[in-house]
Every structure is written in C-alpha cells, then in structure tokens.
Specification:
Low-confidence stretches: none
Number of helices: 11
Strand content: under 5%
Distance between the termini: 30 Å
Structural class: mainly alpha
Length: about 270
C-alpha cells in the first residue's frame, strides 16, 4: 500500500460516490487489475475508511439539514410531524442496513478463508454480475414519483434499509439501489436523491466504528486516500448530484457489467 495507490483510490471514491455506480465495485476493479492481490475482507475495511472522506464531504454539504435533524432527535416530542417521519425512517433503515450488511460481511469473511475462487478473473466476473443487477434495477425504476418526506412509512424504512444493506456487496451501487428503491416506492426524484445521501451518513460512521475500531491497522499512507476522497467528494458533490438527476446511468452500468463478464470469460479461454 503506497501513497500513489491511496491517492488514486481516494480520487475515484470522491467522484464515483455521488454517481449510481458501485464505488466499492469500481475501487475493487481498479485495485484488482492495477495494484496488488486482493484480500476481500481487508479491502472492504479499507473501502469503508475511504468512505469517511465522502462522509465528511456530504456532512458539510448537507450541514443545515443534518444539524436540524440532530437537534430534533434530542427534542423528538417537539419535532414537526414531517421531521419525525424522517427521523423514524433513518433510525429503522439504519438498523436494518446494519443487520443485513453485517450478515453479508460475515459471509464475505467466511468465503475469504475458504477455497472460494479469489483470482483476479473471478473477482472481475463477480463484480461484473453485480453491476448487471445494479444496471437492471436502475433501468426498471420510474422517475414519476409523487410522494414526499411526510409520506414515509415503516415499509419504506424496511425496504430501503434492506437495499442499502445488500450494497455491502462490491458491485452493487448503494446510491443506485437506494435512489431506484425510493422511485419504486413512488418517492419524488429530488427527495429520493437527497434522502439517499442522508441515510448513508449514519451507516458509514457506525460501520467504521464497528468494523475499523478493532483489528484494523492504520498506516500513514491511508491518510492520503481519506484526504483526496474528501477533497474530490466535496468539489464534485453538487455538480454530480445535478448531473446524475439528468442522466440515466442504468444502461451504461449494465453494458459495463457485460463487458466485465466478457473480459473475464475471454481471459479464462485464453
């Protein structure tokens, strides 16, 4: 792990996080094909640490709303009904995400110590298949939503929490799946995009506290990955959020997944 590698991964995380791609999937592909051999469990911990950079970028960008929600959390009884709906949604979805995400990470940890294939070709094939799922999900989503924050209910919380949890699999886009899931639930597109990023904040913070507080060795090179993730995340969040609302990435993600699968098959045959 050198400074150059961390800077490259940090820049990619800072840019891709706001797009309906899988930032973990792209990071995994770059690390797998251009840098050293992959240890999936360690990679996920490193990727989660890089997410702290974009976490602080989003925290600053949404500082007014996050500050308001935090204050209302400590004065829940006095909060407006719409605010209570958002707080309930965030609390339930975060809990569900944690349960589902931890179960998936335990599975990945188990597979990493078994004879499950971990060659670069197998990793590319796996990420390619998951990118297909991400692309299809986005293609099927409708942007004709009419519901807003005050329409959120427990079904929304459970469904969105589950979809955010399965995004622990590298190749499944957290933002792509959650925004598409909001649209499936007929949530307004602008509301969907904003809530998608806000609901990621507690998950990234808690995930780092749980997974990276033990058995995780911080080396100084990782600081550069965090720094560049924050810088590029902060510089690009507004532009890419507006851009992602105007461009439908589902077809591109789907085609990219097919190309990764074909490349893997060709590599095996050759």
């Amino acid at each position: 792990m050198d400074i150059f590698q961390q800077i490259v991964l940090g820049i990619i995380q800072g840019i891709v996080e706001w797009l309906p791609f899988s930032s973990e999937g792209i990071l995994l592909l770059v690390k797998n094909n251009f840098f050293e051999e992959i240890n999936l469990d360690l990679f996920i911990r490193q990727a989660l640490f890089l997410h702290l950079g974009t976490f602080f970028a989003a925290l600053i960008y949404f500082r007014r709303e996050v500050g308001s929600l935090t204050r209302n959390l400590f004065h829940y009884k006095k909060a407006a009904p719409e605010t209570k709906k958002i707080l309930n949604f965030l609390l339930i979805s975060t809990l569900v995400t944690g349960i589902v995400g931890l179960a998936i990470l335990k599975l990945i940890d188990f597979l990493s110590i078994t004879s499950f294939p971990k060659t670069s070709t197998a990793i590319n094939l796996g990420v390619g298949c998951l990118l297909l799922v991400t692309g299809l999900f986005q293609i099927k989503a409708s942007s004709a939503g009419y519901r807003r924050e005050y329409n959120l209910n427990n079904t929304d919380s459970l469904f969105l929490g589950f979809m955010q949890g399965i995004a622990a699999l590298p190749g499944l886009s957290r933002s792509g799946l959650t925004v598409s899931s909001f649209l499936f639930r007929n949530i307004d597109e602008t509301t969907a995009l904003r809530l998608s990023f806000i609901m990621s904040l507690p998950v990234v913070l808690i995930g780092n506290l749980i997974l990276n507080s033990t058995d995780f060795i911080f080396v100084k090179e990782m600081f550069w990955g965090f720094l560049f993730s924050f810088i590029f995340g902060f510089l690009t969040i507004h532009l890419l959020m507006r851009f992602s609302k105007k461009v439908k990435f589902g077809h591109f993600v789907f085609v990219f997944g097919i190309l990764m699968i074909l490349a893997s098959v060709v590599n095996v045959l050759v």
